[in-house]
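Could you join me in thinking about how sequence relates to backbone shape in a protein? Label the sequence line and the structure token line clearly, so we can match residues to local backbone shapes. Once you have written the record down, we can walk along the chain together.
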Amino acid sequence: MAKITTIILLCCLLLLAGCSMFGGKTADTLPDNITIDKTPPAVAKSISWLPAVVAVSVVLLGVSVALLFAGNKLGIMGLAGSGTVLVVAITVSRFLWLIAALGGLVALGLAALLIYKIWQNRKELMTKQFGLIDLVATVKQTQKFLTDKDKETMFGGKNDHGLAGDIQSPETEAIVAEIRGKDAG
């Protein structure tokens, strides 16, 4: 019975200590030279649940300490869990503006990286496209120096598509035909 009474008293003491430690000051209890900044309504609404989280974490810390003193090993896990939640909740409430600013900077950085990668890929595709156009033009100029038999063997005749047709995929043939069509027009 004494253990249960000790545990209840310890929990109440920790609850009161937590409430007094994390309790907010009101404007009429502050000295005249200290002013309280008004929190924007959107921010106030988004962090309105934090005092409840802090209060529950303090109570759970008390229960965990009591369990630890009673010899239960679950007290260690409770201390770790509720302590972590308490630290995160206090950090979020105190540094919400910093967390939001850093998140915004990270989002801007990721957007800039995405734009850079798109630009880089487009530049690379343009380079490859110009290289392909140059290659088709080179082959066209080379054909002038081939005999008719060599041209037919390499590029095919009326019923044959030649060695180039055997090597190239249908997609490549379509691209080359498109480039030749642009070059002729």
